[in-house]
Structures are given as C-alpha cells and as structure tokens.
Amino acid sequence: VRRHGHASSKAVYTRLATSVKSTFAGWLRQPAIVIRDRATAHRLLVRGCVGGSFSNRPPSMAPSAVLSHRRYHNLTSAPYGPFWRVTRRNLTSEVLHPLRLHRYAAARRDALCDLVADLKNQCTSSPDGLVLAAESIRTAMFGLLTTMCFGDGVDAGLIRAMADAQHDLVQFFPELRVFAKLPVAARLIHRQRWSKLVALRRKQEEMYLPLIHARRSRQRKSGETPAYVDTLIDLRVPDDHNKRRRPRRLTDGELVGMCSEFLGAGTETVAAALQWIMANLVKRPHMQEAVRREINAAVDADAEEVGEEVLGLEYLNAVVMEVLRLYPTATLVFRQVSEQDDIIHDGQRIPTGTNVLFPLKSLAQDKATWVNPDEFKPERFLADKGGESISLVAAAGSGGEIRMIPFGAGRRVCPGMAVAMLHMGYFTANLVREFEWREAKGELAVYLRPHFGFFTVMKHPLRAHLAVLTRREGARKEE
Ligand code: HEM
Q1: Distance CA 416, CA 421 (A)
Q2: CB neighbour burial string for 335-352, b if at least 16 within 10 angstroms, e if fewer
Q3: 265 ligand 1 Cβ < 6 A
Q4: 250 backbone dihedrals φ, ψ, rounded to 5°
Q5: Which one of 414, 421, 422, 458 would you pick to mutate in the ligand 1 pocket, going by the greatest count of ligand atoms within 8 A of its CB?
Q6: pLDDT tens per residue, range 157-211
Q7: Ligand 1 centroid vs 408 CA: distance in angstroms?
Q8: Are 359 and 331 in contact (CB under 8 A)?
Q9: Is the CB of 408 under 6 A from ligand 1?
C-alpha cells in the first residue's frame, strides 16, 4: 500500500503508466492511495468499512456527470444512495440479468452474421486475406448493444453514426479531467473544450431522443423482450436531493446519459477484450486449434452458430479468463472515502475525500497467487491440467484475498459481467469456427503491447490474415 497526501501525490504519478497519468490526472492531483496488496484490496472493496459502505467513486469525468453539473445522469457517476440503488437494480434485474440473456439471442446472431460477412468481404477483396479486424469487431458490438438498448430496426447508417459519436466521446474523456475539480471555473477557463463537449452531447441527443420518443409512444406487445430504454421509460426514481419528493420519471437528459453509458460501457470494453483474445490466439496457433477442437467436439457441424453453449466450453473459458487477468480492459478501479466511511489503515483513519486506486493489472499478477504470472497460460484455469477452475466471483476473493478483479468488486462491481462473458465467448467461438486466423508479417505482425488510457486497448489495432473455413475443413483441422 502506498499512501500519499497532497504534497506527495506526485509519487502516485511516478508509479503509473504515462497514459494512465494523463487520462486520470484530474483525480490523481487529489490526495490518493494506491492499493497493490490483495488482502487490503479485499478488505476495502468487498468487506467495505465501519459505518459507511466505501462505495463511492471520485467526482466523475464522464460526460454525463460533467454536463449535468454532477446531477449524475448515469449509474457510474451516481453516488451510493437511493437513485443509484434503483437504477442499478433496474439494469441488473432486467436487461443484464444472467437468466434473461437468451432473450437477445437473435440480436447476437444478427451481429455475428454482419461481422462474419464484413470480415469475409475484407479478406476476399484483399489479395492475401489481410483484414483490419479491430474496426469490424467494434462495429458489430455497437450494433448488438444498440438493439439491446433501443430494440430492433434501428437504421444501419444511424448505428454507424452513433458508434462514431460514442467513439469521439470516449476519445475526448482524457480532456475532461479539467472539469473534475472546480467545474464552474473550469468551464470558463476551458471554454473551447466545454463547447466541444456540449456539441458532442447535442449530436448524441439528436440521434437518441427520436429513438427514445418512438419507443415511448409505441404500443408494446405482451410478452415481448424489453429494450433497456423501455425499462428506463417505465422506471420511477427517488430524488437524492429531496427525499420527501415522490419518485419521478427520468428526464430526457438522464435517459440519454444512461443509454450512452450502456452503449459505451458495453461496447468499448468487450470490443477491446475480444481483440486481446483473438490477438493471443493469432500469436499462438496451437491454442487457436485447441479452441476449435473443443468447439467442434461440442457443436454439430451443421449448426448455424455456436450459441449459449459457449459458456460450458472449459478451454475457451480458460483463454478468456487468462486474457482478463493479463490484459484487463478497465485500467483502474476507483473509490473515494466519504464522510460516513471509516477506513482505518495501519492504525490511522484515511481522511474523507482521499481517492483510493486499485490497479487491476498488478493486483492480478502476484507471484504468491500465480505461477509465472507474466506468462499467458490458460491451463492455469483448468483443473485437469494441474490448474484450478475458478469462477470470477471466487477470484474476486472468496478466500479473503483478491486474485483478479477485471470487473471490479463489491457493491459497485460491473453489472455487465455475465453479458460480457457471454459476448466474449460467443464471438470468439464463432470467429474461430468461421476462419483460420494467421499472423501477418513485418510491421503488420500482432503486437501484444497495451496502450493504457481510460480503457486498456491494443497499441496497434488487431490485423490478421484470415482464411474462410468450410464446416468440413474446420472439423478436419481438428483431426
Ligand atoms: C470485458 C467487459 C467489461 C469489463 C472488463 C468491465 C469492467 C468494469 C469495471 C472494472 C467496472 C468498475 C467496477 C468497480 O468500481 O468495482 C465497471 C463498472 C460498470 N460497468 Fe463494466 N465492464 C465490462 C462490460 C460491461 C458491460 C457489457 C456493461 C453493460 C452493458 C457494463 C456496464 C457497467 C456499468 C453501468 C458500470 C458502473 C456500475 C456502478 O457504478 O454501479 N460493463 N465495469
């Protein structure tokens, strides 16, 4: 554990990668502690503290929070309280509930068909089958999350424009750090940035609000699968600022903020993780073969796709877990000590307002937990290969110590964990079944280096040579 007051917070800077420092500079300038010890991380994140809950993040740099002057237009930036509880329960009990994910099977299949068609198109139009997979993967994920958010039938051109606007917003995140402290003064000093942020959000509103209004005014069929926005339209939320007021509907601003969060959090993270998975399988053809073998043994050669059965494929799951351990797409988990929290460390109370940072990569690479922690070894998650088959929940600390927490931990743990695991497994399995992925040479070779920013992405977006496999070829490769 490293503790830093105002004067020594520079020490935190020096221990974090440059791109992390620049992305989170607004938060890091405040008093901060970096927790690298797994037992302490477990005690703070999972067990909480005396009195409070230790479930608040520092004031958010998310555009919704900045634009709403911290009136918290989404879940990520909402403080721990009644508003957060109601909106979080809505998300986890409806669209993201693990037992309801089968309802979006058709949307997943459509996104997969579009992705496979796009990759086939790219590899047949390039003389050596070279494909820029990164962009195609992100577009497919955005299309899928758009259907889950707004329902079927959103125009393909509009989805592309929404994806571009979302990407622009995420790229703009680091610049928003200036608004983390003294937001009113910062708006005057950084007028250009403020205007750009307002323009980006206006563009989103112009695209999202007509979709929201259309969902609001349509007649719903009984038994139909709700889109996320339907659940938000029906929701009544308590007012954190005025507890005597009756629960109210979400405002248009809040609806746009929540949809933007759903699309951003659900797309960028999974698309980045999928690239890491495929990049590792390109680098390690024998592992790619092992995944293909497992799929072909479990799925009929005539089956149109590998469906939710991906969740039962042990080797594939081990590859996904190993990617999440070595390349967690969220860089840091943040908490901020609030007045109610009573966080004691080394016999001293950590002052209110202190930011507490949990670096996910280093927490997951402790020599005491993993043998050769820097090596990519999916077998460590396979009981029959001398490893241990552990779930993400167990890895987050059922034994009192955190082993890896790519989705965070405690009350604010990522609500999208189950859907993310399904999406990563589903797309990996089907992409390996449809294509043989081979590494390009020279400058186009796969480069397994990260760029640490708001999300940890590949420094060089994934490219590979693809060969289309017929079902019979795929099965023969296995022999
Ligand atoms: C590989 C994929 C993903 C990773 C690695 C990831 C990681 C994380 C992490 C580390 C956190 C912070 C947790 C904490 O503070 O303890 C988080 C929060 C969150 N994630 Fe994810 N996430 C992923 C996918 C998703 C998906 C698919 C969705 C929704 C569709 C989602 C929605 C959210 C939301 C709304 C929060 C804020 C929760 C709150 O404050 O209560 N995430 N995620």
Answers
A1: 9
A2: bbbbeebebeeeeeebee
A3: yes
A4: -75, 145
A5: 414
A6: 999 999 999 988 888 877 777 776 677 777 788 888 888 888 888 899 999 999 9
A7: 8
A8: yes
A9: yes
Please tell me the distance between residue 420's alpha carbon and the centre of ligand 1 in angstroms: 9
Tokens of 102: 């089968």
pTM of the model: 0.91
Q: Using DSSP bridges, classify how beta strands 341-342 and 355-359 pair: parallel, antiparallel or unpaired.
A: unpaired
Q: What DSSP state is assigned to residue 7?
A: T
Q: Which protein residue's CA is at the shortest distance from atom 6 of ligand 1?
A: 407
163, 138 contact by CB (below 8 A): yes
Contact assessment for residue 282 and residue 438, using Cβ atoms and an 8 Å cutoff: yes
Q: Tens of pLDDT along 11-40?
A: 444 455 555 655 555 555 667 888 988 999
**Nearest CA, atom 33, ligand 1:** 414
In eight-state DSSP terms, residue 3 is: E
In 291-382, the DSSP E strands lie at 332-336, 341-342, 344-345, 348-349, 355-359
Q: Which of 47, 18, 118, 106 is nearest to 344 (CA)?
A: 47
ipTM over 0.90: yes
Q: Which of 275, 407, 458 most suits a substitution to test ligand 1, by most atoms within 8 Å of the C-beta?
A: 407
Say yes or no: CB of residue 144 within 6 Å of ligand 1: no
Is 259 marked as a binding-site residue? no
Give the nearest ligand 1 atom to 74 CA. Answer: 35
